[in-house]
Amino acid sequence: MSVRREEAARSSGRFAEDVIDLLADVVLRGGKRTRPAFLWWGWRGCGGAPRGAGAEAVLKVATALELIQGCALIHDDLMDGSLLRRGAPAAHVAFANQHRAAGLRGNADAFGVSAAILAGDLALVWADDLFETAGLDSRARRAVGPAWQAMRTETIAGQYLDLYGQGTGVDSPEESLRVAYLKSGLYTVERPLHLGAAMAGAGPELIAALRRAGRSAGVAFQLRDDLAGVFGGPVRTGKPAGDDIRDGVSTYLMAIALQRARAHGRHEAERRLRAALGNQELRAGELGRIQDLLTGLGAVAAVEARIGQLAASALTALEQARLAPPADQRLSALVRSVAAPPAGT
Description:
single chain, Farnesyl Diphosphate Synthase, 1% strand
């Protein structure tokens, strides 16, 4: 990123200082590098070398994944109106603050929105640039190209379905799982494993086994994130607790709660849950009551059980894949990590 910043600075120091420095902060501040880790150990587990030209190319593709994640974070915060990300102002808020501090003309919030769109777009462009110049040999390029192309479209499709679901108020657990899979599960675990395996020259059966593991682990990751979004908070997650509820996100957690409220004739509980969804003015006291409802209806326990089932399925698929050590143990540990509750819960 420092090389690209120098290139940009030759055209505009202002652009480099304002946009690129903020993008670098978003990408480098915090985060667990989950996607690069799954890609790397997918590569190693399928026979990829730990060092050399091939390994260097793989690490560049892994870095490109982090840039795609940066794009997703910036745009997701913008669409959801989130004020915080990883304990600091979200990109659109930071840009608005820059506008105010500089005493610029016009609306600071509108400036923040526009600048954040550009920063997210830049992250996506740079991810593609990095992939194209990673130094993959011709065989690896042919093997991995379709997965790379599909992953970017899938991620945006998932984001759109999430946005659309907020508008329709969809409360189907099955549809919520589908959105969770497309929005995050695919590009967090399944596609990184697929990319790593394909670059290592893995055959169709091994790639299919890794994708099965990644599919289950990726959905478990998103369900865990949904729980954290309701019961977490700035210290634990870097974002305020309850943001998904305020934004009207149709999570599996909420869909299960609504389904159970209807099934047991708890009409007042259903009414309160629906009233909370999309309520930007939801206060801490009412959020606490909604949290109690989600727990009392058994929705939290149901999501925890589903996470456990998904993690077990992913671990079984990894065991059946018979990966080369130490990748077999590293990937199993990663699956347990993405499915586990945050420390202290």
